[in-house]
Amino acid sequence: MKPSSGSLLHQTKFGHIVDCIDINKQLAFDHPLLKDHKIQERPHFSKRTTKNAGLSRNRPSMIGLQQDACPSGTVPIRRTTKADLIAIRSMSNIIYPQTTKVPNTHRAVIQMRTSEFHSYIGVKGNINVYNPVVKEGSSYAVMYVMNGADEKLNSITTGWMVSPSTYKGTPYSYFFTFWTTDGATKTGCFNIACPGFVQVDKRVYLGSPISNVSIPNGPQFEIGLSISKAEDGNWWVTKDQINIGYFPAAIFNNLTNVETVGWGGIAVSPPNGISPPMGSGIFPDDNYKHTSQFRAIQYRNSSGALDGPHKYTYDIIIDSPNCYLIDYHGYIGEHEGYTFGFGGPGGDCGI
């Protein structure tokens, strides 16, 4: 995206440029279904019950403009680079988040089972952030909401990712979102690569590099994310309870009701089939200090109540156990909630 006339810009330490764009001139409003859309500055949720986990042993990762927020009436938009376009192409492989075998894509996820008696209006969780060495392909830690199949498949995915996009030779983790409006024709969008997402926060933006990441057997840093449906049908993305923005209900053809939600890791390999590391690059075990972890994972059901994956209500999907695994701990107390480790070293995982 090019900056609008008179926009402010920030040069980040990661080498990319963030422009402060008039909130009413962001790319979202190029979408034909959003020409008369009225911006919602904050979500309005129906009455809900909560059952949140407590404080974590991890520290929060820093995302977005740390020093100066964009001025009132503007929002931060990262300029798209060649490396971003490469990442966007790789993201097309996960347009079917976890249900269909896709070439060169491997998953280690926990997914709620579908049922005609259950639907979901939100998913949340805390992910500790790592920066695995990704020389080719891309590696993701994600949570998602999903409904339908083929041309009716709609989904929203958010989390952190690492790809070979570099600054001064060093890959970095960054915050992303991806959404699907038609699975059959792969009409998915990565961050703001095409119209759809309405940015409202003045600091945290899509494509934000993550400043502090976890180190195996060292300090641990995490981000708390959620995807939640508001009363008007819009789907909001939050980071550590900051309302970053939303996907308007109008752009989806089948996301009024959500049949499943999930959490976990995805690795996309190049054509040679050598997959990158996932998570911390270490197989999960009981040592949270070196394993990539999700904690306090929860879904919100159609009644507004928060809960987590109980026995017989979820599936663990691992398509390449020689490369990646999941170690689900279940509920382990009020501080950690429902927790699991995931990841692995990658390698020759098949195609």
UniProtKB/TrEMBL annotation:
It holds the Pfam family Neprosin_AP. PANTHER family: PROTEIN, PUTATIVE (DUF239)-RELATED (PTHR31589:SF223), PROTEIN, PUTATIVE (DUF239)-RELATED-RELATED (PTHR31589). Signal peptide: none annotated. This is Neprosin PEP catalytic domain-containing protein. It comes from Quercus rubra (Northern red oak). It comes from the Eukaryota. Residues 100-350 form the Neprosin PEP catalytic domain. Residues 39-72 are annotated as: Disordered. The lineage of its organism: Eukaryota, Viridiplantae, Streptophyta, Embryophyta, Tracheophyta. InterPro entries: Glutamic_endopeptidase (IPR053168), Neprosin (IPR004314), Neprosin_propep (IPR025521).
